[in-house]
Each structure stands twice: as C-alpha cells, then as structure tokens.
Amino acid sequence: MPELPEVETVKRGLELHVKNTVITHVIVRQAVLRWPIPKNLKTILTNSKIVDIQRRAKYLLLIINSSEIKQQKIKKINGVLIIHLGMSGKLQIVTPDTALLKHDHVDIVLNNNKILRYNDPRRFGAILWSPIPQSCTTPVIHYLDNHERFKHLGPEPLTTSFNTNYIIQKARNRATPVKSFIMDNNIVVGVGNIYATESLFYAKINPTRAVSTIIPEEWQILINEIKKILKKAIKSGGTTLKDFTNSDGKPGYFKQELAAYGRSGEQCIHCNHILQTIRQQGRTTVFCSECQK
Ligand SMILES: [Zn+2]
C-alpha cells in the first residue's frame, strides 16, 4: 500500500508533467473504484487546466480551473480532482502509443502529448470531484477541510500543527496504546506501520504504553523521530524520481535501512537484545523490550 512518502513522491513526479497542462480528453474504462467515479467527469475535465497538484494525507489533489480556457458561453469550472491510490493504485505518465494494460481504468489525456493513466487491480482507490465556488478565496487545501473525506483528518505530520502541545491535548486521559494512537488518522495523518514502528524504536518508547503515561519530553522526541523518518523516506523516494515514467510506474519506494520494522528475531542495533514481535490491532509490531520502556 502506498504510504504518505510514496504519495508525496508521486505528487512531485507528476508535477513536472501535469502542472499547467490542459486536459483534452478523459477515458473512463471502469466506472466504479472504491466509490463510483463521477459520471460527468469527462464533461467537467475536458478543456480544463490543471493549475496545480497538491497532497493532503494520502490524497492527491489536482486543482482544476477552466476559466482561462473555456469560452464565455461555457460555465466556468473550478474544482479539485481528488485521487487516492488505495491499496494497489498507480498513476503513470504514459504516451499515446503506450500499450493498455489490464486494470488501466482511467486516462486523462493532456495537451502535451502525455496521458495520466490510473491503474488499480484491487480498486480500493478513488477518483472524486469536489467543485470549488468561484468566490472561494481560501487555499484549496483549507476549503477541503469540510469535505467528508477530509473533515476527520488530523494535521499533516510535517507541518508545525503536529507538535507536542497538540499531541498532549489529544492524549489526555486516554488509555490508547501509543502505536495505535500515532497511526490514527484522526490524530495525525500518514504515520503507517513502518514509520510508527521505527519512530517508537528510536524514541525508546514501548509501543503498548498508554498515551496518557507519556511525558512531554518523550512526545517531543517521538514527534521529532516521526518527522525525521518521514522526511528521510520522502528524500529516498525523490532520488529515484528519474525512473518515474518507467513502465512499471513504481515511485521510489522507501529503501532506507530499517532498525526495527521487519527485523523480528534479529538483534537490536543498540543493545544486541533480540527484537520481539507482538500483534496490535491486527498489525505486527517489532520492538526491543530492553530499549523501549
Ligand atoms: Zn535494544
């Protein structure tokens, strides 16, 4: 499943190809992903300009504005094409002569002779449309705060909104184990299993601890570790961006060395104790019972 750093990598990779292009055609081969693709997508998008690409949590946001393009008599369209890759979704930039593969569900044809192609074997992904009123003056990302897919989401982990004061407020009087807590999108978005496992290891916090028992100094360290590991993962994704248009369409996955995740039964890099595995909410957690208290 693509994690936040991979989605950010995809965003950065796409930016180069899609920003300031005009959509000339839209082909929908599969009408239903996790939710139905809007029936009027072709009408909405054709002859519209992609003015920007942004990301919120693991959603990619193509900001669409047709006002510069369409003639006076056609209704001006402002909005956001919201794309989620789900479990197995991929977005690729291909050329018109690229052979169609199984599960290539949507093509967004651009005026630069490229196609933004969405492939998703398991169809847990999503392509949604949110209109933005012409009168809207707030940045799109804030406008979407009230959207049903976004309103419950916690802050972005790499922004200053994700800080010690915020997390202490949220953790007050709660017995939730810290690992489940930091992986909860309502608290903070984008901390997947790898990043939660690794950041707790480096912060030396036992993943099963109740969040109400964690002291501010520990939160500070943990938040720093989360930010550090996500930045590192995004950076490692960025290094393989040159391969972005390869036929496999895979973004630069997180290849940095992992200290805990996937190392069950191996020695702790700090104390040589054998790393243990437990199950938390159906997910594997690897940790060092010597170092993580
Ligand atoms: Zn250890």
Helix and strand content put the structural class at: alpha+beta
Strand order within the widest sheet? 5-7-6-1-2-3-4-8
Q: Secondary-structure element order, as H and E?
A: HEHEEEEEEEHHHHHEE
User: Number of helix segments?
Assistant: 7
Ligand identities: zinc ion
Radius of gyration: 21 Å
Q: Which residue ranges are poorly predicted, with pLDDT under 50 across at least 5 consecutive positions?
A: 239-255
Shape: elongated
For the secondary structure, the number of strands is 10
Describe the main β-sheet briefly: 8 strands, antiparallel
Helix content: 10-25%
Gap between N and C termini: 30 Å
**Rounded average pLDDT:** 89
Strand content: 15-25%
What assembly state would you assign to the polypeptide chains in this entry? single chain
Topology, pairings included?
Layout: H1 4-18, E1 21-28, H2 41-45, E2 49-56, E3 59-65, E4 78-84, E5 90-94, E6 104-110, E7 115-119, E8 126-131, H3 140-143, H4 164-171, H5 178-182, H6 193-203, H7 216-238, E9 276-280, E10 283-287
Antiparallel strand pairs: 1-2, 1-6, 2-3, 3-4, 4-8, 5-7, 6-7, 9-10
Helix pairs in contact: 1-7, 4-7, 6-7
Zinc ion binds next to loops.
Task: Provide an overview of this structure.
- By secondary structure, this protein is α+β, with helices and mostly antiparallel strands.
- The chain contains seven helices and ten strands.
- The strands form two sheets. It has an eight-stranded antiparallel sheet. The chain has a two-stranded antiparallel sheet with strand order 9-10.
- A hairpin with a 2-residue loop joins strand 9 (276-280) and strand 10 (283-287).
- The two termini are 30 Å apart.
